[in-house]
Amino acid sequence: MAKVSVYNMEGKEVESMDLNDAVFGVEVNEHLVHMAVVQHLANKRQGTQKAKTRSEVSGGGRKPWRQKETGHARQGSIRAPQWKGGGVVFAPVPRDYSFKLNKKEKRAALKSALTSRVQENKLIVIDELKFDEIKTKNFKKVMDNLNVSKAYVVINDKDDNVIMSARNLPNVDTALANMINTYDIMNGGTVILTKDAVKTIEEVYA
Question: Is the Cβ–Cβ distance between 9 and 129 less than 8 Å?
Answer without folding.
Answer: yes
